[in-house]
């Protein structure tokens, strides 16, 4: 994280997770109250669990089109889309929100994956005219959510784009990811001023509150703990428009397409509830799968209703038979399928 931005957040009352390499913000002093504010009101969060990679150059469009699961060639200038990058076996190495900045492309992903993904992408550049840059230190990412989010943007002098569109302003871009939620990418040097303007109309909350909002929205995020664990359809990626089945080849495309057209996906995205804390990468067990884990947690957070919630990829048969957390004799969790 940019030191100036980190200092500004600290002055605003942010409490940092000392165990996190990406300096995630735990909360602003009232974790329970912030969860309730995220559920019921309008909130603003520093998205320190996310990072950004810029892909630029004459061949940036064709390069990404040949690597990602979605159709980059037809992404308009203000367009935003979900996409994944897969291994040759069709397993997701990372999940992205992709947006454009002129002829350049910005990939937003889990912060703990940025160095490895930037390095791996570079390996595939070969002779293409492409530059790949880690923008995490120079870009601050904010999340704005709630019924008054659009009004808060307008009051702060920022644009309000349409759903899955971006709009530029002097220091960055606003992206609308659903009806009442926005991502705001800002040059780190201007982040403190923009934060104060937005915080006048929105309650500051930590990363956990935003992750709970992602869980409620069924928005999957691949992190280091879950890298190479799932074919995109297991995480419902086709349901959020993260896969194009009409474009050309990309790594893992044959497996992703075969999975879709043969209908052999036996694991899908579920919401979990538990009285015990869960974490990305936690394995799940069930009597329905006596010889292996039946699933894995993608994202988890405390719930404003008490206890904890998570998104997990889970066998359909296990959800009906009962699911235990981390061990066959582990605590029981509830599981509800994410609606199409």
Could you explain how this protein is built, in words?
The chain has 340 residues and is of the alpha+beta class. The protein has 2 domains: 1-219, 2-Layer Sandwich (Gyrase A, domain 2), CATH 3.30.1360.120; 224-337, Elongation Factor Tu (Ef-tu), domain 3, CATH 2.40.30. It is built from 9 helices and 19 strands. It has helices at residues 3-11, 31-40, 60-65, 114-123, 149-155, 191-199, 207-216, 253-262, 316-321; strands spanning 15-16, 25-27, 43-46, 50-56, 80-86, 92-101, 104-110, 131-134, 139-145, 166-169, 172-178, 181-187, 203-204, 267-274, 283-285, 295-302, 308-315, 323-325, 332-337. Strands 10-11-12-9-3-13 form a 6-stranded mixed beta sheet, sandwiched between helices. Strand 10 and strand 11 (172-178) form a beta hairpin. Helix 2 runs parallel beside helix 7. The protein is globular and about 55 Å long. The two termini are 36 Å apart. The model has no long low-confidence stretch (mean pLDDT 94).
List its traits.
340 residues, alpha+beta, Gyrase A, domain 2, Elongation Factor Tu (Ef-tu), domain 3, 2 domains, 31% strand
The spatial strand order of the largest sheet comes to 10-11-12-9-3-13
Beta-strand residue fraction: 25-35%
The span between the termini is: 36 Å
What integer value in Å does the Rg equal?
Answer: 20 Å
- Run of helices and strands: HEEHEEHEEEHEEHEEEHEHHEEEEHEE
CATH topology of the largest domain: Gyrase A, domain 2
Category from helices, strands and their pairing = alpha+beta
Number of separate strands: 19
CATH level 1 class label of the largest domain: Alpha Beta
